[in-house]
Amino acid sequence: MSRSRVLIVGAGFAGYRAARTLARTARHTTEVTLLNPTDYFLYLPLLPQVAAGALEPRRVTVSLSGTLPHARLVLGEAASVDLDARTVHYTGPEGGHGTLAYDRLVLAVGSVNKLLPVPGVAEHAHGFRGLPEALYLRDHVTRQIELAAVASDPAEARARRTFVVVGAGYTGTEVAAQGQLLTDALVSKQPRLHPSPPRWLLLDIAPRVLPELDERLSGTADKVLRGRGVEIRTNTSVREATSDGVRLDNGEFVATRTLAWCVGVRPDPLVEGLGQPLERGRLLVDAFLGLPGHSEVFACGDAAAVPDLERPGEYTPMTAQHAWRQGKVAGLNVAASLGRGVQRSYRHKDLGFTVDLGGAQAAANPLGIPLAGPLAGAVTRGYHLAALPGNRIRVAADWLLDAVLPRQAVQLGLVRSWSVPLDTASPELAQVPGPTPRPPEGETR
Ligand SMILES: Cc1cc2nc3c(=O)[nH]c(=O)nc-3n(C[C@H](O)[C@H](O)[C@H](O)COP(=O)(O)OP(=O)(O)OC[C@H]3O[C@@H](n4cnc5c(N)ncnc54)[C@H](O)[C@@H]3O)c2cc1C
Fold first, then answer.
1. What is this structure's pTM?
2. Could you say which of 291, 308, 337 is where a domain stops?
3. Which residue, 337, 360, 382, sits at the end of a domain?
4. Which CATH number does the domain housing residue 198 bear?
5. Which residue, of 117, 296, 355, 419, has the fewest CB within 10 Å?
């Protein structure tokens, strides 16, 4: 009997878990293909630590073929889905094109940087959604500190050691917290910069940091960051960005060469092209993660609007916690749709959140219990180690080394500004100049 072809598009939290679930429950009856632009699963919550040099980049990646040996990995990005023909067209890593046919499809393409119509932002800001952007930020920040140390113009030196992060959600808050520790470490090696410490600003239009999380987490983060000298500007947004700095909505101009844009994410544009009902850009699915009218298609994670059965009338938020658990349900429901087991609806109560503030500091509320300080730090790191599907010993070793050794103050300069544009559908890949058309790369199966 031929095996059913299951195609999973996207190997992040949701897609990776769906593939792993299928490998465990229906390995002998399904042929699982993973279509993903990279050969690794990226553990996004630790990305700010990569940007700050606390973790080396490969630590937050988990090899897909190494950990999912029963899935066939096709490197590429889905360009379009033909729901009637049950095929997905994709572009491969070297520019060629291919088509994959499926009996069951799981869409788990995640999200990309959210843009706002603010003049100059697309040109001068960088997002924080992929590994190339984290590598770019680490190098860029290091370079600014090095250039500030030798700048003869005091205004230029001040601008270079001023860093602006827009968006005080968990991404922006962690980027500012980790970044500030990095620049402090770099400056301590540059006697020429003393006594002018780097300046970090964290802005948000909301009245508090971490506006989407519990107020106690917000209070802890606010206290830790302000205590370290980070300037938190709430109820503040950016009116314009230029190559020399940013103008805030109160008219103040902040001279800077660094604008990190962490205002949130929007679903991957692929789902728009399906022509199916969307909810704020996310593909609307039912509580079984199925696409209404297409019993062979499932969607989960950031790209899907999944009814939140714990909060009727709402959709589950875009978090790793939900994506990971939805991936499991998607895998089980795909297997059930092929006659193995029964379909189940997705229901999950938030287990709390952790925000790593760098060093030994964190804000966390596991199971609703608010924690701060080193205890929260230990819980946060323990949570990440438990949640990582691989590389745990390497991550723990990096943390140990970081606790006892100084950070490496070097910039490799491998990711340039133009290769990580803010406006991109592929934050997981660094852009390359001038794509050359290539012959077909894949077959229709
Ligand atoms: C810096 C940062 C920190 C975060 N920290 C936390 C945290 O502490 N806790 C938490 O709960 N959440 C956190 N999140 C949010 C969390 O990471 C996301 O909600 C989660 O990754 C969503 O999972 P997903 O599987 O939907 O998408 P992803 O994990 O992003 O995976 C999507 C996958 O699809 C691939 N893909 C995209 N487009 C295509 C295409 N066209 N064709 C093929 N493949 C494609 C991508 O390469 C990727 O592998 C953080 C996010 C960021 C950016």
1. 0.95
2. 337
3. 337
4. 3.50.50.100
5. 117
Name the residue at shortest CA distance from atom 19 of ligand 1. 319
Other CB atoms closer than 10 Å to residue 66's CB: what's the count? 10
Q: Is 401 in the same domain as 324?
A: no
Quick one: 210 and 245 in the same domain?
yes
Residues 305 and 160 in one domain: no
Pocket test for ligand 1, best of 109, 263, 265, 346 (most atoms within 8 A of CB): 109
Per-residue pLDDT of the chain (445 residues; tens, 9 = 90+): 689 999 999 999 999 999 999 999 998 899 999 999 999 999 999 999 999 999 999 999 999 999 999 999 999 999 999 999 999 999 999 999 999 999 999 999 999 988 888 999 999 999 999 999 999 999 999 999 999 999 999 999 999 999 999 999 999 999 999 999 999 999 987 776 665 789 999 999 999 999 999 999 999 999 999 999 999 999 999 999 999 999 999 999 999 999 999 998 898 999 999 999 999 999 999 999 999 999 999 999 999 999 999 999 999 999 999 999 999 999 999 999 999 999 999 999 888 999 999 999 999 999 999 999 999 999 999 999 999 999 999 999 999 999 999 998 899 989 999 999 998 888 888 988 765 445 455 544 4
Rg of the chain taking only CA atoms, in angstroms: 22
Q: How far apart are CA 368 and CA 295, in angstroms?
A: 37
- Claim to verify: residue 220 and residue 240 sit in the same structural domain: yes
- Report whether 59 contacts 397 (CB < 8 A): no
Domain contains 25:
yes
Q: Tell me: do 371 and 254 sit in the same domain.
A: yes
Length of the chain equals: 445
Instruction: Provide the domain limits for residue 398.
Output: 121-263+352-419
Q: Are 337 and 305 contacting, i.e. CB atoms less than 8 angstroms apart?
A: no
- Domain total in the chain: 2
Same domain, 255 and 137: yes
What is the distance in A from the centroid of ligand 1 to the CA of 35?
15
Same domain membership, residue 205 and residue 125: yes
| Secondary-structure breakdown of the chain: helix, strand, coil percentages, each rounded to the nearest 5 | 35, 25, 40
Provide residues with CB under 6 Å of ligand 1.
9-15, 35-38, 44-45, 47-48, 77-78, 108-110, 128-129, 170-171, 268, 270, 301-303, 318-321, 323, 428
Q: Which candidate, 1, 61, 63, 74, places its Cα nearest to that of 32?
A: 74
Instruction: Measure the CA–CA gap between 311 and 329, rounded to whole angstroms.
Output: 18
Which residue of 113, 274, 319 sits with most ligand 1 atoms within 8 Å of its CB, as the best mutation to test the pocket?
319
* 67, part of any domain: no
Is the residue at 372 inside a domain? yes
435 part of a folded domain? no
